[in-house]
Design a protein that fits this description.
single chain, 177 residues, three-stranded antiparallel sheet, 3 strands
Length: 177
């Protein structure tokens, strides 16, 4: 019976087990795609798919937009610890707010993406990025209009952030006042 309760949660929302399972699916999809890139692409190799989208293989030792990529190596462990601490906090938040489905989905996506990138840092010492988009309007900001390459974990984190903002906007609108 405890196993069923783990997936059902309190109230009407799914339980912690459901959200952790979803995070594991995000991590698995992220790691599978990165492994395919590592097997089939050489470092720096670019394979055009459309006029604005390439598959590439790049390694990011930093964070978003290569932040801290040029640091001396301490950033690897900093981002590993940060990802683990944030994930622990997210589990606590899911347990505290199981009835808030969009919120739980949002933070689950963030956790799954963060842990996918943590795994890369532990296994390789860098994060494998492989999705590259180019848009002319980005040229003033990014060299050649190329948005920094990213991966499925980064996409999950972004989706989670967007859903977190949407959840907050909906919650504030529903608040009495």
């Amino acid at each position: 019976m405890a196993e069923v309760a783990l997936f059902r949660g309190r109230g009407s929302g799914p339980g912690l087990g459901f959200w952790l399972g979803l995070a594991v699916l995000v991590i698995a999809a992220d790691q599978v795609t990165k492994q395919l890139v590592l097997q089939h692409f050489r470092y720096g190799e670019v394979s055009p798919v459309t006029s604005f989208f390439n598959l590439v293989r790049v390694h990011n030792t930093g964070a978003a937009f290569n932040f801290l990529a040029e640091a001396s190596g301490w950033q690897r462990w900093f981002f590993v610890v940060l990802g683990l601490v944030v994930s622990g906090f997210i589990v606590w938040m899911i347990r505290a707010h199981p009835q808030q489905k969009l919120f739980c989905f949002a933070v689950t996506m963030i956790m799954g993406g963060a842990l996918g990138n943590v795994l890369d840092r532990l296994l390789h010492g860098y994060v494998v990025d492989f999705l590259q988009f180019r848009f002319g309007f980005l040229e003033p900001i990014f060299a050649g209009g190329y948005f920094p390459s990213f991966n499925l974990a980064d996409s999950a984190i972004t989706l989670g952030a967007v859903c977190l903002i949407a959840d907050e906007l909906v919650r504030v609108r529903r608040a009495p006042g």
